[in-house]
Amino acid sequence: MVPSEDAAPQLDVDKILADPGVRIVVCCGAGGVGKTTTAAALALRAAEHHGRRTVVLTIDPARRLAQSLGLTELDNTPRQVKGIDVESSGGELHAMMLDMKRTFDDVVLQHTDPAKAAEIFANPFYQAMSSTFAGTQEYMAMEKLGQLHARGEWDLIVVDTPPSRSALDFLDAPARLSRFLDGRMLRLLLAPARSGGRSMFSLVTASFGMFSKVVQKVLGAQLLTDLSGFVAALDSMFGGFRQRAEQTYRILQARETAFVLVAAPEPDAVREAAYFAGRLREENMPLAGLVLNRVHRPAVPELDAERSRAAAERLTELGGHEATADVLRAHAALARQAVREQQVAARFTEAFPAVPAVSVTAQPADVHDVDGLRTIGAAISRP
Hints:
Layout: H1 13-18, E1 24-28, H2 35-50, E2 53-58, H3 64-68, E3 79-80, E4 92-97, H4 100-111, H5 114-122, H6 124-132, H7 136-151, E5 156-160, H8 169-182, H9 184-194, H10 200-208, H11 210-219, H12 221-234, H13 238-253, E6 257-263, H14 267-282, E7 287-295, H15 305-318, H16 322-351, E8 357-361, H17 370-380
Parallel strand pairs: 1-5, 1-6, 2-4, 2-5, 6-7, 7-8
Antiparallel strand pairs: 3-4
Helix pairs in contact: 2-17, 4-7, 5-12, 7-8, 7-13, 8-13, 9-12, 10-11, 11-12, 14-16, 15-16
């Protein structure tokens, strides 16, 4: 017996969006499950139906969000979305797309003087780290969330988490940064700056002997020099990095945050959602519920696949009913797919029976405009 998708409590998204105590909604899950569309749909509904001044932060490199909201482009600054129905609600919708290098640059400018900032920007290691270093995007997403929250301009911030190898990277980024800042190698590289400017190589050699030669051989002298200069230039900022990361992490644990898991009825996506739900529970972070996207439902659910297939075969034998037989075969295939999807979804429900859930029927075409986002928002928020 396949558990019904209604076995889980029903997720009341409108209650979340209307609650003034909820200031952050984080949409998370595996890549390719509709996170960006879900985040945009929730933000639009919060503005149009609940009168909230809302900003949606996306990390979508395909720029689908900008297109669906009728914007020519998105960047690191919130842009107001025009032409939406907020006359009666009084809400607003703004959208932005994370530029991790620009965000990193802004942090440097905010916490150093212009001369020091210019030194940092010119450092080759900084140029590489701020653009491509593993984990930088996830950390800068957290940094940008902290900045938006601190400004206090928004009733609601909706976050579309990065399309990482694992959605958990978004949560792990602050901890990884702290480990990096507290690591032995970093303390070693900071030593010259804290010892009156002695040569890094002479200091390392005096302290570690052969170890320094191995490091130079592996990394290269120039890279090690660039890295040392980068670390020394950022030395005064490290405490601020850690402090802000910890502050944002506490915000994510607070009552004002609601995590919404987004998945599709596919084994990998549901497995990722279940893993994420487990981590949220371990970290005492508020999981609001699961949105299961792209669910298939047959038009006549009481007609199962076997009966439909048998009827199609009988009509074929009789002859003269090819069109009807084809419809019945298509219905049988859809019914079988629906059963498979229920079985996959049940894996999450069985593991987390108390987590509210809502399913969204697969759309005939990709969402590419505001009307499409409204349709998705209405489907997610159905009573």
